[in-house]
Amino acid sequence: xxxxxxxxxxxxxxxxxxxxxxxxxxxxxxxxxxxxxxxxxxxxxxxxxxxxxxxxxxxxxxxxxxxxxxxxxxxxxxxxxxxxxxxxxxxxxxxxxxxxxxxxxxxxxxxxxxxxxxxxxxxxxxxxxxxxxxxxxxxxxxxxxxxxxxxxxxxxxxxxxxxxxxxxxxxxxxxxxxxxxxxxxxxxxxxxxxxxxxxxxxxxxxxxxxxxx
Length: 213
Hints:
Radius of gyration: 26 Å
Number of strands: 9
Largest sheet: 5 strands, antiparallel
CATH superfamily of the largest domain: PAS domain
Number of domains: 2
């Protein structure tokens, strides 16, 4: 059974793409999986034994990670799903979702930490690109006096641009319901809009309408 458990553990450590690592009380690496060693530019995880984050990352990030781990060992409380910005000595930046836990011996005493990190750099870049596009769209709509709104079918709540409030004659607020919007529509437009929405009542994604005076 011990041999089987060791075999399964080796399979996990050698093949999982996420980064797994174990550290002692001084936040020095005890061991890590191949994926994490590769991230550090090493072919063999043994080359990281005794090293710390200060040997690989920029000082500010390494210091933050060190303080987090010291707090875990002091309190016994894990950090779960922490989004971390990793800054490297050459100035490049990567992002990970990290879970860190206290490492305990057979008697239950805390002797270090261990954790697993998942790289989310591409997701963060995509989010930043989308955020930039949205900001440009908002600026363009404002300059052209175009109003836009999003309607959530599950909650019946809407998010309006400032120009949309001006066009519809509502005071600016954080949210407004579709029922309130229908009150300002002409009767024939109201019926048409209701039929249009009923046909799409099972939609998962928000509906976005754009209105221009």
